[in-house]
Write a structure and sequence with these properties.
Helix content: 55-70%
Shape: globular
Distance between the termini: 46 Å
Radius of gyration: 22 Å
Low-confidence stretches: 235-255, 274-295
Number of domains: 2
Largest sheet: 3 strands, parallel
Mean pLDDT: 79
Number of helices: 14
Length: about 300
C-alpha cells in the first residue's frame, strides 16, 4: 500500500509541475514512470485508480487558470469555488479516465511479456484521444501535451513531419519504453533488442530535431505578426485591456487593440485562445493579403 501511494503521489507531482501554464518540460517525460513501474504488481482496479488519480491530481494546476481566465465575469459560476460541470468533466475527469485506460493496457502487455506493445500502447491511446478531441472540440488542440514541450525545441521539430501528435507520441513513448524495460518484461535477449531499437528510435527523432534547430537555412520570406496579450505588465495598452476584459467587452477590446498596434503594417494578429469573440469579430483590411486572426 505504501508503494502504491508513493508512486501515485510522485507521478502526480511530476504531472503537476510538468504540465499547466508554466511546465517544466523534462518532468513530463518522467511523470508516468513511477505509476507504470508499480501497476504490474497490483490488481487491475488498483492500477486504473492509481493512474487516473495521478493524472487528475497532477492537472489540478490548471484550476486557478480555468477559474480566473476561462470562467469570465458574468458567468453564473464565476463566484463559486467549483467549476462548471462541463469544464470539470472535459478538462479533468475524461483525460484521467483515458490515461487510466492507457496504463491498464500497458500493464496487460507487460504481464504478457510484450515490451514493444507496452511501449507503444500508452502513446497510441493518448494520441488517439488527443486527435479525436482536436477534430471535434471547438477548442482544438487546447490541453495537448505538445504545449508542455515548448521550451524543448528539438522535440518540437517533430511537429513539422508528424504534427503536434508526433511530439506527444515521442514523450509518452519514452516514458512507457523506460518503464517497460525496467519492469523486466520479456527475456533478457528481448529486453536487449528492445532497448537498442527504442533507443535508436529516440536518437533518430531527437537528432533530427537538433539538426533542424541548428542547421535549417534561414527562410527567404517572413511575415510581421502582432501578438496581443492582456495579462502582461509590460504590454502596451495592458491596463485598458484588463479593465475592458473585466467588463466583458472582449471582442470590442481585441479589435481596438489591433487598431492600436497598427493593423496596416501587420500581416497577422495573434489572439489568446480564450478569446473566440475577438477572433469572430476581426475582419482584416481587404487589400492586405494574409491579414487575419492567427491562433
Amino acid at each position: 500500500m505504501i508503494l502504491v501511494i508513493a508512486a501515485t503521489v510522485v507521478s502526480a507531482a511530476l504531472f503537476y509541475f510538468g504540465t499547466g501554464t508554466h511546465p517544466v518540460w523534462w518532468l513530463m517525460w518522467l511523470a508516468p514512470i513511477p505509476v507504470l513501474l508499480v501497476v504490474p504488481r497490483v490488481r487491475g482496479r488498483v492500477a486504473y485508480a492509481m493512474a487516473a488519480f495521478a493524472w487528475f491530481a497532477g492537472t489540478l494546476n490548471m484550476w486557478s487558470y480555468l477559474r480566473h481566465v476561462v470562467v469570465l465575469p458574468g458567468n453564473p459560476h464565476a463566484n463559486l469555488l467549483v467549476l462548471p460541470p462541463i469544464i470539470l468533466v472535459g478538462v479533468f475527469v475524461i483525460p484521467s479516465l483515458v490515461f487510466g485506460l492507457a496504463v491498464l493496457l500497458w500493464r496487460a502487455f507487460v504481464i504478457w511479456n510484450d515490451p514493444w506493445r507496452a511501449a507503444l500502447v500508452v502513446p497510441a491511446v493518448w494520441v488517439t484521444y488527443e486527435y479525436l478531441v482536436g477534430v471535434t472540440s471547438a477548442h482544438g488542440t487546447s490541453g495537448n501535451l505538445v504545449y508542455t514541450q515548448m521550451n524543448f525545441l528539438p522535440v518540437l521539430q517533430l511537429a513539422s513531419v508528424f504534427g503536434v501528435w508526433g511530439v506527444t507520441f515521442c514523450v509518452l513513448f519514452f516514458a512507457a519504453a523506460v518503464a517497460a524495460l525496467l519492469s523486466g518484461a520479456g527475456t533478457a535477449g528481448q529486453r536487449q533488442m528492445f532497448a537498442a531499437a527504442a533507443g535508436l528510435l529516440m536518437l533518430v527523432m531527437l537528432t533530427f530535431g537538433w539538426w533542424r534547430v541548428h542547421f535549417m537555412p534561414e527562410p527567404e520570406h517572413s511575415v510581421t505578426v502582432g501578438l496581443l496579450a492582456s495579462d502582461l505588465p509590460q504590454t502596451a495598452y495592458a491596463a485598458t485591456l484588463r479593465i475592458q476584459l473585466a467588463a466583458g467587452n472582449n471582442a470590442r477590446t481585441g479589435l481596438g487593440a489591433v487598431r492600436h498596434v497598427g493593423c496596416r503594417d501587420l500581416q497577422g494578429h495573434g489572439f489568446p485562445a480564450a478569446e473566440p469573440a475577438i477572433r469572430k469579430g476581426w475582419r482584416g483590411p481587404a487589400p492586405s493579403p494574409g491579414v487575419g486572426c492567427w491562433r
